[in-house]
Amino acid sequence: MLSVAEWTQLSYLGQLHSFRAKSAEPEFDGSSSFTAVPLSLLTAEKEEAKAVLSLFLRKLGLSSAVAARTIKKSEYFIEHLISRLHSVHKSRYLVGRELTTLEIRDALVPYLESLLDEHGDVLVDVVENFPNPPGRERPTISTPPTTSSLSSKKVKAIARVSELGSDGQLPAHILYLIELGLDMDQIKKMARKFPAFAYYSLDGKIKPVVELFLDLGIPRSEIPGILFRRPQLCGISLSENLKPTMTYLESLGVDKEKWAKVIYRFPAVLTYSRQKVKISVDFFSELGLSAESIGKVLTRCPHIISYSVEDKLKPTAAYFRSLGVDVALLLHRSPQTFGLSIEANLKPVTQFFLDRGFNIEEVGTMISRYGALYTFSLADNLIPKWEFFQSIDYPRSELVKFPQYFGYSLEERIKPRFERVRDLGVEVLLNQVLSTSDAELEKVLEKKAKKMTEGVLPPTLTDFDALQVESEMKDLKL
User: Fold this and answer.
1) Which of 207, 227, 247 represents a domain boundary (last residue)?
2) Residues 135-192: tens digit of each pLDDT
3) 243-267, pLDDT tens digit by residue?
4) Distance from the CA of 444 to the CA of which of 4, 227, 303, 477 falls in 20 to 30 A?
5) Which domain holds residue 283?
6) Three-state helix/strand/coil letters over the chain
C-alpha cells in the first residue's frame, strides 16, 4: 500500500496538473518550461483516460455498470492519470503535438497494471478513494463529482459540434462529416458517446482516417456508418499506431485484400492493443488452430478479438467440450458461436434437442457439423422447423447427419421442396432435397420417379448412407 507521504505527493501532482492546465506563466528565469494544455484538449484527454480506465476495470471482471459507477466516483484519480500522462509525454506537449488514443492507452495501461500488482483486490477502493488511502475520509473541502457535473461534459461536447462560428458556419470538421454523409443527430450521438470526438481536428485526425479507408477500398457510402460506430478511430495516429496495427494483424494471417470487409464488420479491431490481440491468438493456438486458420477466423469474424479469453472464450470452449465437440474445428467453421451466452443461448438449444430424444453425442455431432445451429431462435426457427420435420416422416437420424436443415427458410425452401417430393411419392435424402439447386433436384426427382415407374425398388438405407457420405465429402471439398 502507498504511504501517507506518497498519497500526499500524488495528490500534489493532481493539483499541480490542474494549475498548469489553467496557467502558462514563465519560470522566474523568463523561460517557459511547460506549455499550457488547451482546455479543449484537456477535456478530450480526460474522456480518453476514462475510457482506458473503464476498459481496464472491465477486464478485471467488473460489469460495465459497476465500472461506470467507479469512474463516476474517481474524479481525483482521473486527474492524477492526466497528470501522469503529461509527465510521461512532456516533450510532446512542449512541441505542441497532441497525443493519439493509443499513445494515451500505452502510457496509462502499464501504470494501472502496476497498481493492480501492488494493491490487488482493493484496487477499486484505491481508485475511488484517491488521494486518500482506503478507509480514510476524503477532505471535507472536496466534493465528489456529481452525475450532473459528469453529464455536463457530454453537454459541452454536443454544444461544440453544433455551435456556429463568427462566420455563421459550423466547425470545419462538422461540415466535412455532414458532406461525408453523417447527419447532425448522428454527430451529436457520437459526441455524447465519446466526447473527445467533438474536439478532433479535421486535417490532423478525421480526414487522414477517411482517406485511408477510401484507399483500402471501403465505399464512401459505408464510411459514415463506420465512424458512427467507432469515432475513436479518428484519434489514432496513422503512422505510429493504426498502420502498424494493420501490419501486425496481417502478420497473424488477416487477409490484407479484405481490409474493407474486416473494418466494415468490426471497426474497433484497429483500436485494440497488440497485447489484447496476442492473448486471443495464443488461446486460439492452444485450442489447436493452425496459423492459417487463425488468420481466416480473424478475417471472417474480427469481433472475436473483443471477447474476453477468461470470461467468454474459455468457458464457451469448455461447454462445447462437454458435448464432445471438436472445439478447434467449431471455432474455425463458426467463430460467431463463441460470442453467444452459455445460459441464454447455448444451454436452451441443447436442452431443446435433448427434450426431443437426441442424446448428448448426437447434439455434439450436430453442432460439430453446423455451428450456426446455436444462433437460431427457438420460437422463430427451431420449434416450427422441428414440427414440420415430424410431418415429413424422416428418421431423426437425418437431422444428426444434416443439421443444416435448420438453416433453410421454412416457407421459401423447405415446405415447397418437400411438397414436390411428396407429390411424386419418391424418397430423397434430406441433404439432397435442400442443398441442391432447383435444376439438380428436378433431375434427381425425375430419375427416381422413372425408376419407380419401371418397377425398380427405391435405394436401400445403405445406399442412402453412401449418398450422404458422398454429399458431405463434396461439401468439405467446397
Assistant:
1) 227
2) 444 443 344 444 454 467 788 888 888 888 888 889 999 999 999 999 999 999 999 8
3) 999 999 999 999 989 999 999 999 9
4) 477
5) 236-303
6) CCCHHHHHHHHHHHHHHHHHHHCCCCCCCCCCCCCCCCHHHHHHHHHHHHHHHHHHHHHCCCCHHHHHHHHHCCHHHHHHHHHHHHHHCHHHHHCCCCCCHHHHHHHHHHHHHHHHHHHHHHHHHHHHHCCCCCCCCCCCCCCCCCHHHHHHHHHHHHHHHHCCCCCCCCCHHHHHHHHHCCCHHHHHHHHHHCHHHHHCCHHHHHHHHHHHHHHCCCCHHHHHHHHHHCHHHHHCCHHHHHHHHHHHHHHCCCCHHHHHHHHHHCHHHHHCCHHHHHHHHHHHHHHCCCHHHHHHHHHHCHHHHHCCHHHHHHHHHHHHHHCCCCHHHHHHHCHHHHHCCHHHHHHHHHHHHHCCCCCHHHHHHHHHHCHHHHHCCHHHHHHHHHHHHHHCCCCCHHHHHCHHHHHCCHHHHHHHHHHHHHHHCCCCCHHHHHHCCHHHHHHHHHHHHHHHHCCCCCCCHHHHHHHHHHHHHHHHHC
